[in-house]
Design goal:
Blueprint lengths: L2 H10 L9 E3 L2 E3 L2 E2 L2 E2 L2 H9 L2 H16 L7 H10 L13 H8 L1 H10 L12 H11 L3 H4 L5 H10 L3 E2 L7 E4 L12 E8 L4 E9 L3 E8 L3 E5 L6
Antiparallel strand pairs: 1-2, 3-4, 5-10, 6-7, 6-10, 7-8, 8-9
Helix pairs in contact: 5-7
Pfam families: CHAP
InterPro entries: CHAP_dom
Protein name: Peptidase C51 domain-containing protein
Length: 234
Amino acid sequence: MSLFAMSVTRLLDAPKTRLKALAFGGLVLAQVVTGTVLATQSAQAAEVAPKDNVVGVARNEAAAARLPARHISAQQLIALAVKQVGITENGTGGGTKFHSWYMSIPRARETVARDTGSIAGYANASWCDMFVSWVGAQLGMQETVGEDAYTVEHAKWFAARDRWGTTPKPGAVVFFSFNGGKSIDSIEHVGFVIKDNGDGTIKTVEGNTSGGKVEIRTRPAAQVVGYGYPDFAA
């Protein structure tokens, strides 16, 4: 047996030996880890593998991790929203838990930067959209209900995600223009659909209505600009 062959044999007979490289007669022996010779071809294949594929997989996994858990039904969302009926703002138009919650979340800083003003300004601001956002957040549905305090931008958020339409569905976020306008920029108010009454009206639950309360209302469909559709369990 040649000296070179004897050297290789000794390496293969030492399964727990860790060798990074062994120079012998101008040759470099591959690393031996737990008795396995790591082929240089593997290293070369990894070197020439398309890096874009690795990046693409990582991006897909990251996107999947951000997808909301689709285990909440429309009826569960409606039940939570209806449970808030009776909550009333204070004499300055604020003071609800919806105001306090919105002012405490990171999203408030983002919407202040977008719309100008200050976080403190939300303390007595119109809160119909804060109510909608709060309900979604309590169910862990921020990424499918959205978080906002400005109805127009909230509607645009749904539209940008292809979750915007004109069909009333239970649990849908309904956006109103009381003068009958049909453009997103004309939106004045927002709530949740409880059901389509089938007679040209819809039953809703809304915050900041009837003088600053959470109430169940019946609204003419003619006042609806459109609907945002959260992603509910089937």
